[in-house]
Each structure stands twice: as structure tokens, then as C-alpha cells.
Write a structure and sequence with these properties.
heterodimer; A: about 190 residues; mainly alpha; 8 helices; about 70% helix; about 0% strand; B: about 350 residues; alpha+beta; five-stranded mixed sheet; two-stranded antiparallel sheet
Chain lengths: ~190, ~350
């Protein structure tokens, strides 16, 4: 599978435009990544209002400190995803886990500046979804507890009734398998 | 914590599933272990893609809300790169301070102060500059002598929490930024007898903030961070414009002589610099005109020399010139380059 990747030049150019205070650049970033950022955050915090607030914070962080994003070190998608997840987990840890609320009526991905990038992202996300489903149950449970429930590896160990070292190794094995899936799909350069 | 233990934590770190103290140790480890950093990059990408499996379009109004807030907070303009530099550097220092642990604070830094006292020094400086540009009395203590004021601040804050130092510093930074946004063409910094252009003041403060942030990173074994190229260029240009004055102040002027100084690397450039005051203006432009010496230096090394973080002997510089005088001129230029740091 060969994939046309989002251009590093585009990311660098966008970063420069953000640094210059170009609001259109922020709008483009939002159109490209909002469904990714918002969906991820909503899955973790399970509260649509909190997810909106955190999504806004994530994009404002990019807006106010674009210099912190370094295109040479990774894709903007990864950078935003990492930041969004951290903020979401922080929220969960602050507020404690809440019951999942109905997040229905929200439609799937719509207009984007780079349709190809988004289409490829959807394909990749599907591969990752399959890879998650294929993980051994104990690895999947560990990674879901950590990623979606915002639990530390120590809490994962407690919940699963396993030693902390085992929790760490399950998280690592799970992430490595997903990384291998991404590589197998020739997606390394998303990184 | 040994290397293997930190290595074991990489996946948990990528999932934000470490304890905060462990996360900091991982970050320190990464700064010195590129292979681990590469592994983390892979694991972080995998983690981000887990999030992508949940993509969901947010409510339509969120986009408008975001852009409205962004517009309200937009203090940048294409022509205000000095203020952007200041905000970048102060934000980066603030983020660094936010990650310090209690036992980091006593680590010695390059200028002899501990990490904590270096932050107190910056609070002393920024409150003084804020007072200068806003025509008010300096906060906390009245002294405007750099060493005296720093010593007085260290005494005042000796038993106070670091957050209080940070808060005083941050407030002064905001006052300076507010003044800069106000559009005044020039201002006074209390330890210099002349009014300086607004941009010069902002660039000087940014420069010191960057250098001290790197002092802290160096003291803690963290990776040094260079400003982005446009900002490095801005600081380098300031040093070039000031160099004739610095040669005079340091007793090394060479009337009638000129140098071409070429700074290499991202953000670099080429400057034609008269080696005494009252002669031609410093000009940034490439050229082949006759000069008495040509210096070629990496831009980050040059900035570190300006900040006196590298000695003239240790700096990698290529010198060329039509006569034997070139070598002497190069020595005087490199010596004078750190004049501001020694004032």
C-alpha cells in the first residue's frame, strides 16, 4: 500500500503562518484535525461540553505557541493527538471518571482542506481499530484502561490485579503491535 | 532509576500513564538517549492513532467559538517579531519552571547562581525593566544595580516558595509585553544611561531569557533549545548593530576598519560592520566589497559568545583577510561581542 503523505512543507508553512498570527491557518488546522482531536477527547472524557472546551484549548495552544510544534520531530496529527490525550487524561484525573454520556447525533467527518489526508487518516484509523481488536485481550484491556480511561500503569495493575511490571509490559507490547501495524501499512512517515 | 527502568516506562509515558515524577525522569533520559527518543516517537504515533479510531465531528459552533477566542488573543502581527520573540522565550522559560522539581533548584548554573537564584535574578531584572519602561518605581526593592538588586531579591525571596518568584517574574513580563503592545517607540532600562528603541529592549530581554533558560537546562542535563531561525536572526542582528558601540566600550575600536561577519546555520546572514562608532552604518547584505577581515561563525555559537557562554578560544570561527591584521581584528571582535553580558 503506497500512500501520499501530508507534506512536511505544508506543516512548516502552516506553522510559520500560525506564528505570524494568520487566523486562516488556524481555521485550516481545525478543519483538518478537529474531528480527530474532538473524537479522541470525547472518548476519554465522555462529556461533550468538556470535550468541546478541551478541544478549544488544544487548538488555542497551537495558536498561541506554534513554535512548540516541531515538524522535524513528528507530524502535526501526532502532536495534536498527544496534546489532546494529555489534556483529556488530566481532565479525567481531575474530575474523576464520569459516566459516559450520550454523544449521539454527532455526524462523522465532514469538510476538510485536504480531503486526501483525511481519507488516508480514516483508512489508517480503520487499520488501527482492527489491530486493537486483534490484540490479546489482556493487552487490549491494559491499553484501553490507560488510553481511554486515563489510568496510570499503576492503576491499570490494580484494576487488572497484576504486578506493575506486567502492566508496563502489556502496554508496551500493545503499542508496539500497533506501531508494527502502522509500519506494515507503510505509514511510518505519518510520524 | 536506571536506564532499563526508564526504558520500561516508555510505553506508559507515550500513553500519559506515568506518575509525574517518572515522566520527568523519562524526559531527562530521552534528552541523552536518541535511540529511546526514536522508540518513543514510534510509540507516541501509535498512541495518537488509537485516538484516531474515535474521530467524530464536533458541534459546528465550536469552530466559530475557537476562531473568535483566537482573534481576541491575537497580539501578533507580521511586523512585530520582536514581541513574538519575547513571548516565545518567556513562555518557554515559564513552561520550564513549571516542570522543575524541588531538588532541581539548588543545581549550580553557568553564571554561578543556583537554578532558584537564577530565576530570582530574572524576576529582579524583569521587574526593573518593567519599572523603567512604565516610569514607575522598581518593585520589591529600589536598587537598579544589577548585582545589588539580584542580591537583594535573593535575600527577600530566600524563604518564599518558588511559585511566588515565578508569579512576580510573570507579572513583570506581562507588564513589559503590555508596554510593547502600547506602541511606544523607545524606553529606558534603568541600568543604561540612554533611551533604547522599544525593539532593542524587547530583544535584549528575550536574549537574556533564552540564555538563562538554557543555563537551567544545562544545569539539569536537559537538551538545550535554540530559538527558531527568524528569532535567532533577530538577536544576531541586534548584536551586529551594537558591535561598533561594544568595540568602543570595551576599548577595542578600529577606526577606518570594517569587517564582514557571516553567521551560518538557520537564521544566519551576512553583515558589513564598521569597527568603530561614528562611521558607516552596520548593513545586513551579502557583498564582495573590500573589508579588513571576514569572520564566519555558526549563528548559535555567535549568540552564545554574545552571552559570554563560550570563550573566544573555544568558538569555531573561520577568519580571512588581506593582511595579518585580520587575526587581531577577529580577536577584538570576538572579545567585544560579549560586552553587553559584562555590563
Amino acid at each position: 500500500m503506497t500512500i501520499e503523505l501530508p507534506s512536511l512543507d505544508w506543516e512548516r508553512c502552516t506553522r510559520e503562518r500560525l506564528m505570524a498570527g494568520n487566523e486562516a491557518a488556524l481555521g485550516e488546522c481545525y478543519d483538518q484535525y478537529a474531528s480527530f482531536v474532538y473524537g479522541l477527547i470525547l472518548r476519554v472524557v465522555r462529556d461533550p461540553k468538556a470535550a468541546e472546551d478541551i478541544t478549544q484549548d488544544v487548538f488555542l495552544c497551537l495558536w498561541e505557541k506554534p513554535a512548540v510544534f516541531d515538524p522535524a520531530k513528528g507530524a502535526l496529527r501526532t502532536w495534536l493527538g498527544t496534546l489532546a490525550h494529555r489534556r483529556a487524561v488530566d481532565h479525567v484525573r481531575r474530575e474523576e471518571a464520569r459516566r459516559r454520556r450520550d454523544a449521539a447525533v454527532l455526524t462523522r467527518v465532514t469538510r476538510t482542506p485536504d480531503v486526501d489526508e483525511m481519507a488516508l487518516a480514516l483508512v489508517t484509523a480503520e487499520r488501527v481499530r482492527e489491530a486493537l481488536a486483534d490484540l490479546p485481550g489482556e493487552q487490549r484491556e491494559a491499553v484501553e484502561l490507560a488510553y481511554f480511561e486515563g489510568k496510570t500503569y499503576r492503576e491499570v495493575a490494580v484494576v487488572m490485579g497484576i504486578p506493575e511490571g506486567t502492566a508496563k509490559s502489556r502496554l508496551r507490547l500493545a503499542l508496539r503491535r500497533i506501531a508494527v501495524t502502522l509500519e506494515a501499512e507503510d505509514l511510518r512517515q505519518w510520524a | 532509576m536506571n536506564d532499563a527502568t526508564v526504558d520500561d516506562l516508555l510505553a506508559a509515558y507515550a500513553l500519559n500513564a506515568c506518575e509525574p515524577s517518572e515522566a520527568l525522569q523519562v524526559e531527562r533520559y530521552l534528552a541523552e538517549h536518541p535511540a529511546a527518543a526514536a522508540e518513543l516517537a514510534k510509540l507516541s504515533t501509535a498512541a495518537a492513532w488509537i485516538g484516531a479510531t474515535e474521530a467524530l465531528t464536533p458541534p459546528p459552533r465550536l469552530r466559530d467559538d475557537l476562531l473568535a477566542v483566537a482573534r481576541a488573543r491575537n497580539t501578533r502581527s507580521a511586523s512585530d517579531d520582536a514581541l513574538e520573540l519575547f513571548r516565545d522565550q518567556t513562555d518557554q522559560l515559564d513552561a520550564l519552571v513549571g516542570r522543575l522539581r524541588a531538588d532541581d533548584l539548588s543545581a549550580p548554573t553557568a553564571n554561578g547562581l543556583s537554578v532558584r537564584d537564577l530565576l530570582v535574578h530574572l524576576a529582579a531584572m524583569e521587574t526593573m525593566v518593567a519599572a523603567g519602561v512604565r516610569h514607575t518605581d522598581p518593585a520589591i526593592v529600589p536598587s537598579v544595580d544589577i548585582e545589588g538588586r539580584t542580591a537583594a531579591f535573593i535575600e527577600v525571596f530566600a524563604l518564599r516558595p518558588l511559585d511566588e518568584v515565578r508569579s512576580v517574574w510573570r507579572r513583570a513580563v506581562e507588564e513589559i509585553a503590555d508596554w510593547a503592545v502600547g506602541g511606544e517607540a523607545e524606553g529606558h532600562v534603568p541600568w543604561l544611561p540612554v533611551a533604547l528603541p522599544r525593539d532593542t529592549i524587547i530583544v535584549i530581554r528575550s536574549f537574556e531569557t533564552w540564555i538563562h533558560a538554557d543555563d537551567i537546562r544545562r544545569a539539569l542535563g536537559l537538551e538545550l533549545e535554540s530559538p527558531r531561525p527568524a528569532h535567532l536572526h533577530r538577536m544576531a542582528n541586534f548584536s551586529m548593530q551594537s558591535l561598533p558601540a561594544w568595540l568602543e566600550v570595551s576599548g577595542r575600536p578600529h577606526p577606518g576598519r570594517a569587517a564582514r561577519i557571516v553567521l551560518t546555520g538557520a537564521g544566519g546572514g551576512s553583515w558589513l560592520v564598521p569597527l568603530a562608532l561614528g562611521e558607516a552604518n552596520v548593513a545586513e547584505a551579502a557583498g564582495v566589497e573590500s573589508v579588513d577581515v571576514v569572520l564566519e561563525v555558526d549563528i548559535v555559537d555567535w549568540c552564545h559568545r554574545v552571552a559570554e557562554r563560550i570563550s573566544p578560544d573555544a568558538i569555531a570561527v573561520r577568519v580571512a583577510g588581506p593582511t595579518d591584521l585580520a587575526g587581531d581584528l577577529a580577536v577584538d571582535i570576538l572579545e567585544a561581542a560579549s560586552t553587553l553580558a559584562t555590563l
